Amino acid sequence: MNRTPALLTILLLTSAIFIANCTYPRVNAIPTATRTPSPLPAVTPTDTAPPPFAPVELGLAENPLILALPPSANSPEQIEAANLIASLFTQRTGYTVVTTVPDSYIALVDALENGNAHIVLLDPYAYELAYQRGSVKAAYGVMEEGESLYGAQFLATRKGGFQSYYNEITGENTEEAAVALAQFADKKPCWSDESSPSGYVIPQGYLNESQIITKPPAFVEGHPTVVRSLYASGICDFGATYIDARKFPSLEDEFPDLVEQVIVVWQIPKIIPHEVLGFSSAMPQEMRDLFSTQIAAIMQTDSGRAAFNTAYGIEELQVVNDGFYEEFRNYLKDSAIDLTTLVQ
């Protein structure tokens, strides 16, 4: 009997049992790295928007005060004089002041409204437009021949049958405007030009305020031309000029009897400004008061007065406020002329 197969079978079974009962050492697997997300910061709900950036204080170098020259300023001397005034303001007040030259009065009025001009010299119409927009405060009236306001006069001819209500000796009117001007109803006026305060705009305001309707006017370009047109007759029945355009040198030489023939019918009181020196309404009251005081002080010095004269043509100033121009404002409104067409 062959025992080998049986023995081999026994050995194989024994090995299987041994292998099944053996314990192998455990190998730990390398764990896969993982990131735990960091928690987001908690968001606290709020009903208020984040605060805006704080504006830079007016008068600092980053937000300087702007001294504007008149639009007509085009010479190096004017600009140099304005720069001197700005420098004096900075030295005396501690505020930074720079200069600019606007392209026009309407641009200057816009600059006031937009915060791009703060110390300005305005003609009467530009001042009134800026005042209506609430962007300017009057501080000084420019004086000429000792007056910061001037008047006008209604003229006509004796041969035209018009009556004078003005006393040449006392320099006073003898009747109210409504009475004196009533004789111009349905008559033809000669006006200087469409923007002249004394030769058209304010006289038209007086006529409208008295409800006097006239024929269509003739614009004859110039106050002396108004006088000449009346003297010649046939062109118009009455007119208005500054006081006293009849004594214009060439007229007196040409027409020796002109003053006797062309009479003052009624004189408009001194209500028309020359020019107005004012401050932006954006300047705090204390700042406006400070600069107003410094203007007066600078004008007391020879160099300061010369600088104001060169830059602005100013020789003398009178302290004023916006109420000082109330009569001018009223008759300008009565003229019914669109103010924006008068600001150039």
Explain the overall architecture.
This protein has 344 residues and is α/β, with parallel strands linked by helices. The protein has 13 helices and 13 strands. It has helices at 4-21, 76-93, 105-114, 124-132, 177-181, 197-209, 223-232, 249-254, 258-261, 285-299, 302-312, 326-334, 339-342, and strands spanning 65-68, 97-100, 119-122, 136-142, 149-157, 166-167, 172-173, 189-191, 218-219, 238-241, 262-273, 276-280, 317-319. Strands 9-8-10-5-11 form a 5-stranded mixed sheet, sandwiched between helices. The model is unreliable at 1-46 (pLDDT under 50).
How do the helices and strands line up, and which of them pair or pack?
Layout: H1 4-21, E1 65-68, H2 76-93, E2 97-100, H3 105-114, E3 119-122, H4 124-132, E4 136-142, E5 149-157, E6 166-167, E7 172-173, H5 177-181, E8 189-191, H6 197-209, E9 218-219, H7 223-232, E10 238-241, H8 249-254, H9 258-261, E11 262-273, E12 276-280, H10 285-299, H11 302-312, E13 317-319, H12 326-334, H13 339-342
Parallel strand pairs: 1-2, 8-9, 8-10
Antiparallel strand pairs: 3-12, 4-12, 4-13, 5-10, 5-11, 6-7
Helix pairs in contact: 2-10, 2-11, 3-4, 6-12
